[in-house]
Design a protein that fits this description.
Blueprint: H1 2-22, H2 26-57, H3 67-76, H4 92-126, H5 139-175, H6 178-197, H7 199-205, H8 212-251, H9 268-283
Helix pairs in contact: 1-2, 2-4, 2-5, 4-5, 6-8
Length: 284
């Protein structure tokens, strides 16, 4: 599931790359897409590497080191020696240190690089114009400077929000897959409860010579209804909700901004109305 989350997040980032290229946003390519991709692969990509390494190179007969503990200690026990029972491969400590440093270095790049470069380019463009002296009572120039300051503040706040949202989203979206484990556990427990309270009870306590078969038929019908209503319908609803959240929250937030052009469906009526308006304007 973590491998799927990494590929899904990576695909969303490459969709954003297509948007940046289409709209000519070179700064977003180098200082948003590239740092986000590196940050994602340093954490989630490394987790996927540990999963495959554990599958192929660690003997299943001995005690298995925990990948979850390795990922937690990667940040909370930075630079400390890894205990032998938790060691997955040789040199794990130094690899994890490098990945953590690289991932953390991407955070200030995502936050500050684009606003600083945009502000530098704007100052360089305005430096060619001589600023005329003005009286302190000139409200127009004062208002313009106030608007420019507000625009700079909005730019920094917007960049900070996107940076925090992405960094926290990488961790929270990965942890959200624990709900699948919880749902599977609840599914197994409900299945066991339904079996113990219905069919198992009927098989072990009913007397077949005194009409137990007929009673068991109604018990089976009751078990079948509960199985369909509680297990199948609830599991189908949970799968639908998880897929919906995966699509809208974990995938589309990588590239969807809710901005663009209003959709106008093809209409002969609108075309004829526009032509009539043009004719009226031309005749005036």
């Amino acid at each position: 599931k973590q491998w799927y989350q990494r590929e899904y997040g990576t695909f969303g980032l490459f969709v954003s790359l297509g948007n940046y290229r289409y709209f000519g946003k070179t700064l977003d390519i180098w200082f948003t897409f590239v740092p986000q991709l590196i940050f994602l692969w340093c954490i989630i990509g490394y987790m996927c590497f540990l999963i495959f390494y554990k599958w192929f190179f660690i003997d299943s007969g001995k005690e298995q080191p925990s990948i979850l503990i390795a990922m937690i200690d990667m940040f909370l026990s930075f630079g400390e020696d890894i205990e032998e029972d938790d060691l997955i491969y040789e040199g794990q400590k130094y690899v994890q240190m490098v990945l953590v440093v690289v991932a953390l270095c991407m955070v200030p790049i995502m936050f500050a690089a684009k606003p600083l470069i945009e502000q530098y380019n704007k100052n360089k463009d305005t430096a060619h114009y001589e600023r005329l002296s003005y009286d302190s009572d000139d409200e127009e120039l004062i208002e313009r400077e106030r608007n420019e300051a507000q625009a700079r503040l909005d730019m920094w706040v917007n960049q900070a929000i996107h940076t925090i949202e992405f960094c926290l989203g990488v961790i929270s979206n990965t942890a959200s897959y624990l709900r699948l484990w919880a749902l599977s556990l609840a599914h197994s427990e409900l299945s066991a409860v339904l079996w113990d309270m219905t069919l198992y009870y009927g098989f072990t306590t009913l007397d077949w010579d005194e009409g137990g078969f007929a009673i068991l038929f109604f018990i089976w019908a009751f078990w079948a209804v509960l199985t369909v209503v509680i297990l199948l319908c609830m599991e189908g609803l949970s799968a639908f909700l998880h897929a919906l959240r995966l699509h809208w929250v974990e995938f589309q937030n990588k590239f969807y901004g809710g901005e663009g052009y209003k959709f106008l469906p093809f209409s002969f009526r609108l075309i004829l109305e526009n032509e009539e308006n043009l004719e009226e304007i031309s005749n005036m």
